[in-house]
Amino acid sequence: LTILGLESSCDDTAAAVVRVDDLGRANVLASVVADQTDLHAAFGGVVPEIAARAHAEKLDLCVEQALTQAEITLAEVDAIAVTAGPGLIGGVVSGVMCAKGLSAATGKPLYGVNHLAGHALTPRMTDQVPYPYLMLLVSGGHCQFLIVSGPDDFSRLGGTIDDAPGEAFDKVARLISLPQPGGPSIEQAALSGDPARFPFPRPLMDRDTCDMSFSGLKTAVLRARDAIVAEKGGLTRQDQSDIAASFQAAVVEVLATKTKKAFKNYPHDAPRTFCVAGGVAANKAIRTALETVSTQNEADFVAPPLSLCTDNAAMIAYAAAEQCHLRGPDDLTLSARPRWPLDTAQPSMLGSGK
Ligand code: ATP
Ligand code: FE
Questions:
Q1: DSSP 127-157
Q2: Going by fewer Cβ within 10 Å, which terminus of the chain is more open, N or C?
Q3: Which element (helix H / strand E) includes 204?
Q4: Which residues bind Fe cation (predicted)?
Q5: Is 268 annotated as a binding residue?
Q6: Looking at the CA of 143, which ligand is closest?
Q7: Can you give the pLDDT at residue 270?
Q8: Ligand 2 center to 121 CA (angstroms)
Q9: Sheet with strand 79-85: strands edge to edge
């Protein structure tokens, strides 16, 4: 099965060609990601209208590049997969329209894929992870513990009640004048910082649930920054690093502690695999801490390579390859959905727009 995937739900325009063999092993023949960081840099965040336009302009080109890199023609792919939500609606619409056009022109079946399902199934692309598995999906817009029991079977154990960690990394980077995206720049700055200098809050830690909160952490960083600025007029490089390290340490501790609770609340016995995915899973300090908790719970730990953690179209193509054994393709009424929680059914089963 060879699938062309399209992804345009946030600020990365992506196309990929993935081949999945009869044993379910994935081979990424091409994965093209055109990021829009430069376009949004002046605005301090992703501007939805600019993102949507850039997706509309770049999708064709990304598809062409992916096909060229994979040394395959459109006629040779078996299906077309596209992120149909959740995400910034203008971008999702651009992707869905492009995929519909390709499907209508070639007669290839079309699969609308949940972006979060793409992230959640990613560990199975590189490792033989059996269902069910416990996972932490931690990205720019989401943070949740899931039990993944099948390609379209997700149940949520708990998650953030306000901001997602990726969003917090990005906002904190902005507060202390580090470049976007904030995750990698905070991780880099934290390497030379003192994680104990600022005792940033770790909320909801004594609760037995997997609920988390990150908005107070952001506010605490703002206060710490303002205090330094009031005292010395600005941040030194060391101040930036210390804030980055202290912030990252708080996120690491919250995620590790809540992973312990997730293991406690995990209703299954063997097989025990714990996976992490989503953009924030690219963070090495977070990966290391989660691996330790996983080992303490005698579970195998799987973290996808960095290029598959952040947004990409290979995960969308792969999710469609898994899901097409469970459901038929979507037709041209497939709609783009700004919101689409993971623990609900496919859009084709729900009707449009809910
Ligand atoms: P969602 O998947 O929830 O819709 P998204 O697609 O925007 O959101 P991803 O692409 O999965 O999110 O992840 C992007 C986020 O990951 C950004 O907030 C970015 O700062 C964060 N990130 C990337 N690399 C790192 C890192 N090394 N450490 C921490 N965070 C990181
Ligand atoms: Fe994402």
A1: S-PPSSEEEEEE-SS-EEEEEEEETTEEEEE
A2: C
A3: none
A4: 115, 119, 311
A5: no
A6: 1
A7: 55
A8: 12
A9: 26-35, 12-20, 2-7, 79-85, 110-114
Kindly tell me if the per-residue pLDDT of 354 is higher than 50: no
Would the annotation count 139 as a binding residue?
Answer: yes
| 265 marked as binding residue | no
As a whole number of angstroms, the distance between CA 24 and CA 12 comes to 27
Instruction: Provide the pLDDT for residue 266.
Output: 81
If you average pLDDT over residues 208-221, what whole number do you get?
95
Residue type, 325: H
Residue 285 Cα to ligand 1 midpoint, Å, equals: 15
Give the whole-number percent of the chain exceeding pLDDT 70.
96
Residues with C-beta less than 6 Å from any ligand 1 atom: 9-10, 87, 115, 119, 139-142, 166-167, 169-170, 181-184, 187, 278-280, 282-283, 310-311
Cis peptide bond N-terminal to 341, omega within 30: no
- Percent of the chain scored above 90 by pLDDT? 85
Compute the distance between CA of residue 98 and CA of residue 92 in angstroms, rounded to an integer: 10
SS3 of residue 329 by DSSP: coil
Q: Read out DSSP for 58-125?
A: HHHHHHHHHHHHHT--GGG-SEEEEEEESS-HHHHHHHHHHHHHHHHHH---EEEEEHHHHHHHTHHH
Place of tokens 């340490």: 249
Q: What is the pLDDT of residues 40-94, one digit of tens each?
A: 877 777 888 888 888 888 999 999 999 999 999 999 999 999 999 999 999 999 9
Among 55, 9, 3, CA closest to 278: 9
The DSSP element (H or E) to which 264 belongs, if any, is helix 237-265
Distance between first and last Cα of the chain:
31
Q: Which two tokens stand for residue 175?
A: 């507060």
Query: Is 322 one of the annotated binding-site residues?
Result: no
pLDDT of residue 52: 84
pTM here? 0.93
Nearest CA to ligand 1 atom 2: 139
For residue 124, give both structure tokens.
């199975």
Closest ligand 1 atom, residue 11 Cα: 7
Report residue 352's pLDDT band, with 50, 70 and 90 as the boundaries.
very low
Q: Can you tell me the distance from the alpha carbon of 13 to that of 270, in angstroms, rounded to the nearest whole number?
A: 39
- Rounded CA-CA distance 122/312 in Å is 10
Looking from the CA of residue 181, the nearest atom of ligand 1 is 20
